[in-house]
Write a structure and sequence with these properties.
By secondary structure, the chain is an alpha+beta fold. It contains 12 helices and 15 strands. It has helices spanning 5-9, 31-37, 48-57, 77-80, 115-121, 166-175, 205-236, 285-290, 305-313, 326-329, 378-389, 427-445, and strands spanning 65-68, 74-76, 100-102, 105-107, 126-134, 146-157, 183-185, 249-257, 260-270, 273-283, 296-304, 350-357, 393-403, 410-418, 448-449.
Length: 450
């Protein structure tokens, strides 16, 4: 993974912060995430995330769109939060949510950390970013501290379109785009003064209507590309949850995102249920003004690649995306196609409970420091378990909590499910892991084991 590739792609005027090569991150985070950074699952052939990325990119052709797939995950706090208008008290800034390398540097929590510099570079009319992102999170089969996002944007410049008429230029572009036969539900107006406001100080309604139509056609095309292939794969293996006669349909739902307005979520009807696939909208003009391109306007979208790939390939556990097991890798082609995942094993679960009291007093501020009831955060427990057990833990959940009526002390009980994707864990192995978890909970969080 070349963390300096962006500097060679973007013009010299771009403000590019590459920080350190990703390999050095293992000095700051647990070995499990260092391993993940060194395993480029997003760009390696025969991996579901790479196949998903390629299928989406195929709907956003070059040279209109540039592709950024290997940007460094080490970014500044200014890139990750300030450039996007995150308020100083936003919970995303907390050490309980974000991996801080130092006071001014973090592991990016979203691909939008690179948005301002790419807008500023102005190297293409559109772009996609696909990248690993990092958040302290729960432990279960759909959450992981390292995962992947993809975002894209398409801009039009008033100084470059004929007559400065952005609306006409967008409609002309839309007329050249391929049509589809999706069933589309879109019952709401393009803008609504309370629910989905127009950026009236910057945008005219005619421009917004044109860009919204272009955005929706573009992303509906992504759904056709992905889910038509996924449906064919399901029908090919006689999946009970796939009906050849069921039409592919989507619906647009009003939404709120801090970087766009108006905004929408796109849902697809898949296997009998409506599922959210992505969020999108018209880019906030303040972001473009701050990036030095005030004459541009356009749309942006973002999605979680693991979430989409789990639906497309029927992958039941997010840990599998990092697997090096050939029984997993051999199921996927290096071509832009979708195969349904076939489970090759189901190893037994091994549940262990851990109960502890929080301290009465503390000077900590969360994010791994010793915790009491005021600053305790569940993600700190998750980090301790992950650091000890890595991919040998499938999920951790709170099963009981209690507050002593006299002392006021709080107690929590978490149930840990140890289960490997590759082999059967012995009870002795699970007991050893559990003992180390308890030791680290005491040492790192200052709890009292019950």
């Amino acid at each position: 993974m070349d963390s300096y590739r962006l500097a060679t792609i973007l013009p010299a005027k771009a403000s590019v912060v590459t920080a350190e090569p990703p390999v050095s991150i293992n000095r700051y985070i647990q070995p499990i995430r260092a391993k993940q950074i060194l395993l480029p699952v997003l760009t390696t052939r025969q991996r579901p995330l790479s196949l998903t990325r390629q299928l989406i990119e195929s709907r956003f052709p070059s040279p209109t769109f540039a592709y950024y797939n290997d940007l460094s995950p080490v970014v500044t706090v200014a890139q990750n939060f300030d450039s996007l208008g995150f308020p100083a008290d936003h919970p995303g800034r907390n050490r309980s949510d974000t991996y801080y390398i130092n006071q001014n540097t973090v592991l990016r929590t979203h691909t939008s950390a690179h948005e301002a510099e790419i807008f500023r570079a102005n190297a293409s009319e559109g772009y996609t970013i696909s990248a690993d992102v990092y958040r302290r999170d729960a432990i279960d089969r759909s959450h992981y501290p390292a995962f992947h996002q993809m975002e894209g944007a398409r801009m039009w410049d008033r100084r470059k379109v004929p007559g400065g008429n952005i609306a006409k230029a967008v409609w002309d572009d839309l007329a050249r785009m391929p049509k589809h036969n999706l069933e589309v539900e879109d019952p709401n107006p393009i803008v609504h003064p309370e629910r989905n406001p127009l950026q009236a100080e910057h945008h005219g309604i005619e421009e917004v209507e044109a860009i919204a139509a272009h955005l929706k056609r573009s992303l509906e095309g992504v759904v056709v590309e992905l889910f038509s292939k996924a449906k064919q794969a399901a029908v090919a293996v006689n999946s009970l949850d796939a009906s050849p006669e069921e039409p592919l349909k989507v619906r647009w739902v009003e939404a709120y995102f801090p970087f766009t307005s108006p905004s929408w979520e796109l849902e697809v009807f898949w296997q009998g249920d409506w599922l959210e696939i992505l969020g999108c909208g018209l880019t906030k003009q303040d972001l473009l003004i701050n990036a030095g391109v005030p004459d541009q306007m356009g749309w942006a979208f973002g999605l979680g690649l693991e979430r989409v790939a789990m639906l497309l390939f029927s992958i039941p556990d997010i840990r599998l995306f990092w697997s090096k097991d050939n029984r997993f890798l051999s199921q996927f082609s290096d071509k832009e196609s979708i195969n349904r995942f076939r489970s090759f094993s189901k190893y037994p679960e091994c549940y262990k409970d851990v109960s502890f009291w929080l301290r009465n007093t503390s000077n900590s501020a969360g994010g791994g420091a010793k915790s009491n009831a005021q600053d305790f955060h569940e993600n700190d427990v998750m980090e301790v378990v992950r650091e000890v057990a890595g991919d040998l833990v499938e999920d951790v959940r709170l099963v009981d909590q209690f507050q002593h009526p006299t002392s006021g002390r709080k107690s929590y009980c978490y149930r840990i499910n140890y289960r490997s994707l590759e082999r059967t864990l012995t009870n002795r192995e699970a007991n050893d892991l559990q003992a180390r978890v308890k030791e680290d909970l005491v040492e790192k969080l200052g709890v009292e084991i019950r």
